[in-house]
Structure prediction request, 154 residues.
Amino acid sequence: MIIKLTPPITKDKIDDALATFNRAKNRKTTKGKEMSGIDFLVDTNVIVNIKEGKSKVEQFVKYRLAVSFITEIELLGRKNIDKNDKLVYKEMLKNVEIIGFSDEIKEACIKLKQQYSIKTPDAIIAATSIITGIPFVSGDSDFEEIKQFDFIKV
Prediction:
């Protein structure tokens, strides 16, 4: 895995990202559903793009988001992660649902690995979307070939 280093994030960008997440926490979706339901499962790159204030993912912060435990590991487990980045990611993760591993996700992951050329972490995340029925959002085009789930490419 290649990790692209981003330029230092300013305190203003950190404050903006956290404020956006905190405002979104108690909102309702445009469909009128209570926020107890999850609207989108988002990939690691979506969380990073939200933190960096990228406009292509801005529309998703008003919804109730979830991530796989894989995303939590990818965000916080980077070697030499900057202290500020780690704090921001931890704070952002407090405002999303983190979906853990289950036997159902494991079985779906195995089937995906048998059908597609996909890395295990990506298969786990895709399987999480399939099992939960939550649409998946990512900037990674590798997911486009998987037909078993709703995929939104940003």
